[in-house]
Amino acid sequence: MGGKETVSFFSILAPKGVKNIKRFKFNQKSIAKAIRTFSLSVGATAICMLTASGFLGPGLPAQGNVLEASAFNSSGTLKDSGVIAASSHEETRYVIPLGTTFGIKLFTDGVIVASLSDIYTETGLCCPAAEAGLRPGDYLLEADSKLLESNTDLARIIGASEGRELRLKVRREDEVFETSVTPVYGDGSFKTGMWVRDSAAGIGTLTFYDPKTGIFAGLGHGICDMDTSGIMALKSGEPAEITLCGITKGEVNNPGQLKGYFSSEEALGTLLANNDAGVYGTLSTVPAGAPIEVLSRKDVKKGAVQLLCSLDQNGPQLYDAQIEKTGPADQKTKNLVIKVTDPRLLSLTGGIVQGMSGCPILQDGKLAGAVTHVFTEDPTTGYGIFAETMCEYAVGFGLSK
Prior knowledge:
- It is a single chain.
- The protein is mainly beta.
- The chain has six helices and 29 strands.
- A hairpin with a 4-residue loop joins strand 17 and strand 18 (215-218).
- Helix 2 (80-86) crosses helix 6.
- The longest helix is centred in the C-terminal third of the chain and has 14 residues, at 387-400.
């Protein structure tokens, strides 16, 4: 199936959170510095390049290359049964639409193996991590029975090994197993040939707050690791206040982005989950605004809509758009094809840009969905997710608080 590339629109930055285990000069303050200032749509650490093939049901043809409009994914801690239970009976839901940009600080449950590389030793090239059967995307939970909470923990243990075999506890998808790795000496220190990551930071848009459950929802897609494209397993995290300071306008094959920086040390709340349908959590202060009805999947239709977006410090504004196609009701994500038509938004951003993941989609004054991706070959167009899907997750997390 041919078409366009799509990009998810959450912007992530975590270059300081990536550590090469072949080096051992780790600065514990580096993560804090990384999440203090960032370009909202830097894709180097948080943007997942996804091909549309295989993700769409028969109702939505593949649109080629797609980019997420933000930079984060979920832990998947919400059980499917929670979502099913929440949607097993008809009821009208009401939520407060937000459309405000926010920052996210996410710390993973274990240390992610981002990539593997060979090490130059006196006897030639080798990669102990690969020889131990480790793969990119694995989570390292323990080393020699010591809990791994950060890159620094792992680096310290490897550095002190003096080439002694280390026993690792590893999680790969739903499987947990143990393996042994023997560090080798090269370039002045002991190494295993792993690049690892323990955190990410970025920006996106809050979609809604559910006053009934006290849960917020944002992004409409999960935060993924930039190297493995897998959703990052959440250990802890928080929404944070950001200040927008500019826009890079989107062009064909060159997605645009919002620019900004973390503007407060105070957390806005607590992150509870990072999954396929967005990020979810609680807020310290209940947002102002009147609740509006959430449209059921079957009631969302092609036609005129409005996007509630924040592009500067003036806060959320409404911009005109169209739903060009709707997908099957039983499809979890990428349910809507949206086209920006508002001349003001097109003039400012060129369409959908990174940082807009989670922008509420309003139809007839009701919440229909949220923006999630942009088509890189046509930045005026992108995907959205049904709001009802996100609400079901919010209800599930509200019940499990």
